[in-house]
Design brief:
145 residues; alpha+beta; three-stranded antiparallel β-sheet; 26% helix; elongated
Length: 145
């Protein structure tokens, strides 16, 4: 049986659902979605910090093993990675030509072999051994054996 009290309860429930939907909806700002992350701002040089090998061993042996799950950083409100100093969206933003797809992301053409290559680092005992070299243009490359 429908009474005045039942109608009021249904009305309150209806009003709750109508107005709570806006409160729970994802908020967007006028500049959303952000397409370019200006992450190339000047910062101070981080100070060198000496870490005790004993502390490092104890912390990484007996410290917490599981990191808390957190939301990804550096994404826009749509969950996409915006363009930045280290990433450029190429697929999906504009139609790509077959030549662009074949070429890939290489923009330098590789090391300048007309000059000398200077070895600046090595990791010969790593899972993927190789050398870090700098060419005459000053570009660094990792050569894998």
């Amino acid at each position: 049986m429908i009474t005045g009290q039942n109608i009021r309860i249904l009305l309150y429930i209806l009003i709750y659902f109508v107005f709570s939907g806006n409160l729970l909806a994802q908020k967007f700002f006028p500049d959303d979605p952000i397409r370019k992350d200006e992450d190339n701002l000047n910062i101070e040089q981080p100070a060198f910090m000496e870490i005790s090998p004993t502390y490092d061993m104890v912390e990484n042996t007996f410290g917490p093993k599981v990191q808390p799950i957190s939301r990804a950083q550096g994404i826009n409100t749509l969950g996409e990675v915006p363009d930045s100093s280290w990433f450029t969206n190429r697929i999906g933003i504009q139609e790509m030509q077959i030549e662009e797809l074949i070429k890939g992301g290489d923009s330098t053409g590789g090391p300048d072999l007309s000059g000398t290559l200077t070895v600046t680092g090595s990791s010969l005992t790593a899972l993927t051994p190789g050398l870090t070299v700098r060419d005459s243009r000053g570009d660094s490359y990792y050569l894998i054996f």
